[in-house]
Amino acid sequence: MTNPLFSILIAQYNNGKYFQDCYKSIMAQIYDHWEVIIVDDGSTDDSVAVMKEIIGNDARFKIEINSENKGCGFTKRKCAELATGEICAFLDPDDVITPDALSVMVDEHAKHPEASMIYSKPFWCDEYLNIQSERKSQQVENGVSDFFDLDGYLFAFLSYKNDFYHKTEGINSYLQRAIDKDLVLKLYETGPAFLKDKAMYKYRIHPNGISTNRNQDKAYFWYWVTIMDAAKRRNLNIEDLFIEKALQSRREVSLEKEIAAYNKSIIFKVLRKLGLFKLFVN
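^ Chondroitin synthase, sequence as received from the core. Prediction below:
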């Protein structure tokens, strides 16, 4: 694989206000043989106009617009279908990558021609891209039939070989969330995944983000849809796994809510004011 074309895939909906940072990070790449595929999912604001103004007449950027809002699964699948590069990676329009991100990924794919994907780890950032922390990761075990990446190690920045993607049935266009989970589980079935233990992706956390707290319950549902789909492809029964992981998680969430409610209760406030809380809990 000599000087491969790298396809940066951007599925976007009403995120034009953040695109300037994303664009600058792409233009700052050390590796310069790339294309950018942007698919807009029927934005209701001026995002497309904003992005077109930023991009100008740069032919390396291609913008497609869905005729109506189709959802994240449909839009990301379309991105993948339009990609012509040998290596592909999704980048959210409100996030950025470090200047060496593409270069590092190209080198890693050259080292591992058998790999379906190379993954790394992100920085968690605030709305203004100030780094808050660096996510930990580790090398996953390859070739395991019941591997579902429950720990979420297969994460951004993640790139894959287009040839391996075309060995799969492609991203499930029905999915509203957990599309990245669907993608990595399908890629895992076609070839090994290797970790590059380096943070190269700045993940912006802001009120309008799809991964914020108010969307977590919905995301959890779609997360298990992708796992069940993977189990079906692999002819596995995951009933026990679901009971162990999903229901346990729900119980933990319920307990956290009960504790939070108690902490706000009148009796807790009275006991604390009287200095009796330590005696009470002991």
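The longest strand covers residues 193-204.
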